[in-house]
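Tip: read the tokens left to right.
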């Protein structure tokens, strides 16, 4: 007799819980970075630029799975804080 597959297997549960865990981690990081005037995403983008993981807005968007317009707004805020400087590619 074949054993029935459990309805709530580990991958199913992970797909349910992982987004909530990630959101909570970002919230905790946002609180910790608030004193520096940064969000977790802004800090990640700064780190990626420092590590040269991405050199263009399109690369940043791809790296973080965000729309180009979201990255543009994020970089605009960092530029306004004078934490990053954009240069035109040639």
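Filled-in amino acids:
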């Amino acid at each position: 007799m074949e054993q029935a597959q459990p309805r709530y297997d580990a991958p199913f549960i992970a797909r349910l819980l992982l987004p909530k865990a990630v959101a909570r981690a970002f919230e905790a990081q946002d609180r910790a970075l608030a004193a520096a005037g940064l969000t977790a995403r802004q800090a990640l983008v700064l780190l990626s630029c420092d590590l040269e993981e991405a050199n263009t807005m399109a690369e940043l968007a791809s790296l973080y799975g965000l729309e180009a317009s979201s990255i543009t707004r994020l970089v605009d805020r960092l530029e306004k804080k004078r934490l990053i400087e954009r240069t035109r590619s040639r």
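Helices lie at 10-33, 40-50, 57-64, 68-80. The longest helix spans residues 10-33.
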